[in-house]
Structure formats: structure tokens, C-alpha cells
Amino acid sequence: MQLNRPFATVTPTLDGDVLAVLATSDVTFTITQVQRILTTASGEGIRKVLTRLTAQGVVLHDQVGRTNTYQLNTEHLAAEPIIALSRITATFLNRLERHLEGWGDALKYAAVFGSAATGRMTLDSDIDLLLVRASDPEDRNDNADPDTWDQRVTELGRLVTAWTGNDGRVVEYTQDEIRAAASAGEPLLNDVAREGLTVAGTRAWLNTQLRPIGKTQRNRNA
């Protein structure tokens, strides 16, 4: 699936993209406003979709002067699943957060990065996940031995695929390793710091670990 095009999981047509726009807000939209968001769709195509959805009752149509406006009918029986589908990225991130809560102190940080985080997914895109594991043995409980950790990572990849249909690609670091990689200016960590979506730990903690990236860049610019 494409997290950035949630309705494509049930319909490949423009109808889904238009519904995704209408479901993002309680305000009304004109055809021009919808087209500004759906940059590859024609105004005529959007008009036909809105006319069809209005006939189904799921979209409310009004006319202010010569301007036609459209709004999702939130009282429609289909509104609840439409809104739920439009929020599929948030649902995915929430599921990840809840699942990773059970990993305990052994997991210091986790984030989704790459196309799933930036809204540029295609059907063939992997879902990239960064996991940072504690280096200090005191932060590891009995359930976080190497075998248990590996089993959890394998299960995480399976769940991501089950939830989305996309391959889950997990990149692992220990806390010591991520500091060393940051000192070396690892580009992947720059991407995570700039665009990653945190699902375990805090961004402040990650920034503390990645401070050497900034120092390296300043030294190069000096």
C-alpha cells in the first residue's frame, strides 16, 4: 500500500484521492482548491467525481454566488470508514508505538524514515524503520537477550508487512554504534534526524546522540 494514498487500497480511481482531501478537514472545498492539492488531476475530472459523490450523498454540495463548494457529509453512514481510511498513517504509527512499548528499556529509540515518512511511497516501497538498542547492560532486562531481541525484530518486520503489505526494512544500531556512525557523518542518520517519525523514545534523545553530525558538518565547512 501507499500510506500517502490510503484510498488506493480500495479504489485506484480519482474518487479515493478526492475523498482523502475532503476527509482531512471540516471546511468546504472548491474544485480549484481540490485541484491545487491533487496537482495531477484535471478540474473536469474532479468535478465529475464530486458530482458522483454528491449523488451518493457522501458529499454535500452548496453554491455561493457562482462558486460551487463541497464538503464531506460527516453524518453519512459511510463517513466513519472514510475518515478512518484517510487517517491510516496515524493509525499505522499508533500501532507501532503500542507494539514497541512492550520492548522495555532495551529499546532506546525507534523511527520510521524514508518514503513512508516523507509521503513519497510507491506500491513497491519498503517501510524503513530505525531501531536503537541500549548498549549498557543495566538497561537490558531478562527479556532483551540477543535471541529475544532478534525474535522481536523478526516479528516487527512480519507485523509491518501484515499491516501494510509492504516489506519492513529494519536498520539496527546499538547506542554506541549510532554515536560512532554520527561521528562518521552517516547520511541515513541525517535523513532520520530531518524527516523521521518517532515511534519510541524521544526526538530530544536522538538529537543528543547525533550531535557529532552537526560538529562534523561544521568542521567540513570550516
Automatic annotation (TrEMBL):
<dbReference type="InterPro" id="IPR002934">
    <property type="entry name" value="Polymerase_NTP_transf_dom"/>
</dbReference>
<feature type="domain" description="Polymerase nucleotidyl transferase">
    <location>
        <begin position="110"/>
        <end position="139"/>
    </location>
</feature>
<dbReference type="InterPro" id="IPR043519">
    <property type="entry name" value="NT_sf"/>
</dbReference>
<protein>
    <submittedName>
        <fullName>Nucleotidyltransferase domain-containing protein</fullName>
    </submittedName>
</protein>
<keyword id="KW-0808">Transferase</keyword>
<dbReference type="Pfam" id="PF01909">
    <property type="entry name" value="NTP_transf_2"/>
</dbReference>
<dbReference type="GO" id="GO:0016779">
    <property type="term" value="F:nucleotidyltransferase activity"/>
</dbReference>
